[in-house]
C-alpha cells in the first residue's frame, strides 16, 4: 500500500524535552527513556511505542504503528532538561523518589547525573508544603517569564536541539478560578504579569507564556489553571504553537473514563459514585493542603459530567452524587491505591453496586503519558497545528475545551481514542474514517 502525501515536516535533529519538576514522575520518565534506548527496559504503556492504528479500508486495510504513519522523534534523539525547587540532579532525585529499583537506575547513572535542575519559577503560596531553595529571585511575574525564556534559549543553544517541548510534571498549584479581567486576553495577562498580580497569575502561567513565546509547545500535566484560559489560546494562535492539558490521566480517572461508558451504553442509572485515594509521594504531600486539593478535585469531578449526562438522559443521571477524596498516607509513597464505590440501578429501579480497588504505581502509569504527549505534540507542531490539541484528551483527566463558547469536553475514553486515531491518520495523509457518536 502506498503512503499518501504528508504535509508534516520530518523529525530531523534532536528533540529537547524540558520538564517542569524533577520529582518521581519526571525521573521515572527520564530513566525509562534512557534505559529503553539502551535496550535495557521496555516502554510499556506508551501508545506511540506499542499501539497500532488501522489505516484505509477493505483490501488495503493495514494496522501500523504511530511512527509508521507520522514521523515521530526517536528515543535516541531526546535530550532532557528540568526545573525544580530542589537542586539534586536527576540521579539523586530518582534514588530519593524510590519508585524504581536501584538496579534499574544505575545503568544510566552518568546520564542522569548530567541533568541538573535549573532554578524553578516558584511561589510558595502556590505550594505551601514545598520548601526547596533552588528558586529564581524575581521582582515580578514578568521578570519570571523573562528568566524562563532565557533558560529555554540557553538550553537550546547549549544542547544543539532543533525543537523543544515544555511539559509540566510538577506539583498541583492552589486553585485559581478563571478571572476574565486578567485571563481574558494576552494584553490583560501581560499587564497583570508586569504589575506582579500574584493572585491571578500562577507560576505555571509564566512557564507556559515563556514556552509559547519561544516557539515551544506546552503540555500541562497537573490540574492547574494555566493554558486553559483565552489569553493562552490567543498566545498559542499568535505564535502558531500547539498546547495541551490538563492533568495526566493515570489511575482512578482512567478507570472512571473507561467504566462510566459501560453504564451509559447499557442505559443503567446512577445514584452515586464515591472515589477515594491514598498517596504518599510529594504529590500527595502537596495535595494534603486544602487549597491545592481543590484544584485536583475540580479536575477529577469533571469526568463524569459529560459521560453520564443529565441533559441527554435526565431519568438516569439527573441527581447522582459524586464525591472525590485524596488522603496523604506516607507509607505508600508512589504506590497509590484508589477505591470506587458505584451505586447504580437497573430494571424496575432495583439497586446494584460496583466496587473497584486499583492498586497502581502513579509514576509508572504517568511516565508513558509524558513520552506520548511530548512526541505527539511535537508532531502536531511539525504538522502546522496550533492552539488546543483536542486529540490529546485521551491522556488527560480534564481535557481542554473552549468553555467561553459552552463547548463540552470529551471525557469518554473510547471517544477520546477515536479523536486520537483520527488525528494521527490525518497527519499521516490518511482519511479520518471513524465517527464519534
Describe this structure in words.
The strands form three sheets. The protein has a seven-stranded parallel sheet, with helices on both faces. A four-stranded mixed sheet has the order 10-9-11-12. It is globular, with a radius of gyration of 21 Å. It has helices spanning 24-37, 47-50, 66-69, 90-97, 109-113, 141-159, 180-183, 186-194, 203-213, 230-239, 252-265, 282-287, 290-307, 314-317, 362-382, 413-427, and strands spanning 15-20, 52-55, 62-65, 78-84, 118-119, 163-168, 218-220, 242-245, 269-279, 321-328, 337-345, 351-359, 387-388. It contains 16 helices and 13 strands. Helix 1 (24-37) crosses helix 4 (90-97), helix 6 packs across helix 9 (203-213) and helix 9 (203-213) runs parallel beside helix 10. By secondary structure, it is α/β, with parallel strands linked by helices.
Distance separating the two termini: 29 Å
Q: What does the largest sheet look like?
A: 7 strands, parallel
Fraction in beta strands: 15-25%
Main-sheet strand order equals 5-4-1-6-7-8-13
Which sequence of SSEs, written as H and E, runs from N to C?
EHHEEHEHHEHEHHHEHEHEHHHEEEHEH
Structural class: alpha/beta
**What characteristic shape results from the CA principal axes?**
globular
**Mean pLDDT across all residues, rounded?**
93
The whole-angstrom Rg is 21 Å
Counting DSSP E segments of at least 2 residues, the number of strands comes to: 13
Count of helical segments?
A: 16
Helix coverage percent:
25-40%
Question: What is the topology?
Answer:
Blueprint: E1 15-20, H1 24-37, H2 47-50, E2 52-55, E3 62-65, H3 66-69, E4 78-84, H4 90-97, H5 109-113, E5 118-119, H6 141-159, E6 163-168, H7 180-183, H8 186-194, H9 203-213, E7 218-220, H10 230-239, E8 242-245, H11 252-265, E9 269-279, H12 282-287, H13 290-307, H14 314-317, E10 321-328, E11 337-345, E12 351-359, H15 362-382, E13 387-388, H16 413-427
Parallel strand pairs: 1-4, 1-6, 4-5, 6-7, 7-8, 8-13, 9-10
Antiparallel strand pairs: 2-3, 9-11, 11-12
Amino acid at each position: 500500500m502506498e503512503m499518501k502525501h504528508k504535509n508534516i515536516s520530518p523529525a530531523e535533529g534532536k528533540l529537547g524535552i524540558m520538564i517542569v519538576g524533577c520529582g518521581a514522575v519526571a525521573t521515572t520518565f527520564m530513566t525509562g527513556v534512557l534505559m529503553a534506548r539502551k535496550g535495557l527496559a521496555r516502554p510499556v504503556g506508551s501508545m506511540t511505542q506499542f499501539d497500532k492504528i488501522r489505516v484505509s479500508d477493505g483490501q488495503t486495510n493495514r494496522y501500523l504503528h504511530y511512527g509508521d504513519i507520522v514521523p515521530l522523534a526517536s528515543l535516541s534523539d531526546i535530550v532532557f532538561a528540568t526545573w525544580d525547587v530542589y537542586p539534586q540532579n536527576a540521579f539523586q532525585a530518582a534514588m530519593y523518589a524510590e519508585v524504581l529499583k536501584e538496579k534499574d537506575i544505575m545503568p544510566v547513572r552518568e546520564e542522569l547525573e548530567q541533568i541538573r535542575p535549573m532554578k524553578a519559577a516558584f511561589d510558595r503560596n502556590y505550594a505551601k508544603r514545598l520548601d526547596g531553595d533552588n528558586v529564581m529571585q524575581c521582582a515580578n511575574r514578568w521578570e519570571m517569564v523573562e528568566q524562563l525564556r532565557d533558560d529555554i534559549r540557553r538550553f537550546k543553544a547549549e544542547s544543539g536541539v532543533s525543537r523543544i517541548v515544555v511539559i509540566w510534571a510538577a506539583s498541583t498549584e492552589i486553585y485559581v478560578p478563571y478571572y476574565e479581567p486578567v485571563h481574558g486576553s494576552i494584553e490583560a495577562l501581560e499587564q497583570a504579569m508586569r504589575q506582579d498580580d500574584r493572585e491571578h497569575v500562577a507560576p505555571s502561567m509564566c512557564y507556559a507564556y515563556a514556552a509559547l513565546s519561544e516557539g515551544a509547545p506546552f503540555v500541562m500535566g497537573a490540574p492547574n489553571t494555566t493554558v486553559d484560559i483565552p489569553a493562552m489560546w490567543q498566545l498559542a494562535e499568535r505564535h502558531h504553537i500547539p498546547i495541551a492539558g490538563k492533568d495526566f490521566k493515570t489511575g482512578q480517572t482512567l478507570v472512571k473514563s473507561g467504566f462510566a461508558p459501560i453504564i451509559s451504553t447499557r442505559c443503567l442509572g446512577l445514584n452515586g459514585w464515591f472515589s477515594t485515594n491514598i498517596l504518599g509521594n510529594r504529590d500527595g504531600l502537596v495535595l494534603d493542603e486544602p487549597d491545592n486539593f481543590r484544584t485536583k478535585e475540580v479536575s477529577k469531578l469533571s469526568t463524569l459530567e459529560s459521560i453520564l449526562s443529565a441533559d441527554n438522559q435526565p431519568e438516569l443521571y439527573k441527581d447522582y452524587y459524586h464525591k472525590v477524596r485524596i488522603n496523604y498516607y506516607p507509607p505508600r509513597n508512589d504506590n497509590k491505591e484508589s477505591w470506587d464505590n458505584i451505586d447504580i440501578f437497573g430494571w424496575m429501579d432495583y439497586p446494584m453496586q460496583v466496587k473497584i480497588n486499583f492498586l497502581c504505581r502513579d509514576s509508572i502509569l504517568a511516565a508513558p503519558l509524558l513520552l506520548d504527549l511530548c512526541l505527539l505534540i511535537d508532531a502536531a507542531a511539525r504538522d502546522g497545528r496550533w492552539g488546543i490539541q483536542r486529540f490529546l484528551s485521551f491522556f488527560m483527566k480534564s481535557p481542554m475545551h473552549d468553555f467561553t463558547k459552552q463547548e463540552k469536553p470529551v471525557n469518554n475514553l473510547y471517544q477520546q481514542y477515536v479523536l486520537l486515531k483520527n488525528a494521527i491518520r490525518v497527519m499521516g495523509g490518511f482519511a479520518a474514517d471513524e465517527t464519534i457518536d
